[in-house]
């Protein structure tokens, strides 16, 4: 069949386009199958059907997997635009019908979930037809954008002393900036200070997250300003564990002020840093087609409202 003269939309199915777009996001047929709850053979069949209808090669073998050709990447970009337009149309239709419903998948790193999710659920109780599913995802700050392939909203953090990482076609909604304070045991000689400078604390034993997490990047800035390397004795992403270790005198740490403040009383002291802007920026990341969904917009607005008191 000669398909060269027929319009694109006469030859393709939106569902087939969606599979191609997911392949561009996830990188493998197996990953697409997992994300779409389809079988790998069904994913491959849809890709084969799309290629046959268009009469052009969209994917090619690459080792044990496949990769998009130039034509495949071009059509995947079109597929993203189509998905966004369809989501926007569905949002308008829900507005017309006077209701909003759907499932929204929200991924947060641990301390942001602790800070924001309980109040978010309180707010969403007024919208019972929206089902919010929450997931824990704590990765290095440059890897949060990749999670938008699997979730509708990804709450990410990054240190505020660096430019935002390259994120590709991802929408970003600022939520808040959270200061980072130096956490000290109650009996520490510096615990009574109103502020501490990098030179005051650089020689301490430090408890920090893995490299490339915002808290660790701030410690790097402290070391640079003090002109001496930090002595790291323990690494963990679990903030409650960091708090317990500090409280028992096993080191000091950088901890987020709003998240830690309530648990710090009677256990440890939070002291702001002097001469250094120390904080993390918390943002919501979304693929454009997900951001266009009405249910996602409702959850996002509620998330922004929940973060507002901390953003002031």
TrEMBL record:
<dbReference type="InterPro" id="IPR011991">
    <property type="entry name" value="ArsR-like_HTH"/>
</dbReference>
<feature type="domain" description="HTH lysR-type">
    <location>
        <begin position="12"/>
        <end position="69"/>
    </location>
</feature>
<dbReference type="GO" id="GO:0005829">
    <property type="term" value="C:cytosol"/>
</dbReference>
<dbReference type="GO" id="GO:0003700">
    <property type="term" value="F:DNA-binding transcription factor activity"/>
</dbReference>
<protein>
    <submittedName>
        <fullName>DNA-binding transcriptional regulator, LysR family</fullName>
    </submittedName>
</protein>
<dbReference type="InterPro" id="IPR000847">
    <property type="entry name" value="LysR_HTH_N"/>
</dbReference>
<dbReference type="InterPro" id="IPR050950">
    <property type="entry name" value="HTH-type_LysR_regulators"/>
</dbReference>
<keyword id="KW-0805">Transcription regulation</keyword>
<keyword id="KW-0238">DNA-binding</keyword>
<dbReference type="InterPro" id="IPR036390">
    <property type="entry name" value="WH_DNA-bd_sf"/>
</dbReference>
<dbReference type="InterPro" id="IPR005119">
    <property type="entry name" value="LysR_subst-bd"/>
</dbReference>
<dbReference type="GO" id="GO:0003677">
    <property type="term" value="F:DNA binding"/>
</dbReference>
<keyword id="KW-0804">Transcription</keyword>
<comment type="similarity">
    <text>Belongs to the LysR transcriptional regulatory family.</text>
</comment>
<dbReference type="InterPro" id="IPR036388">
    <property type="entry name" value="WH-like_DNA-bd_sf"/>
</dbReference>
<dbReference type="Pfam" id="PF00126">
    <property type="entry name" value="HTH_1"/>
</dbReference>
<dbReference type="Pfam" id="PF03466">
    <property type="entry name" value="LysR_substrate"/>
</dbReference>
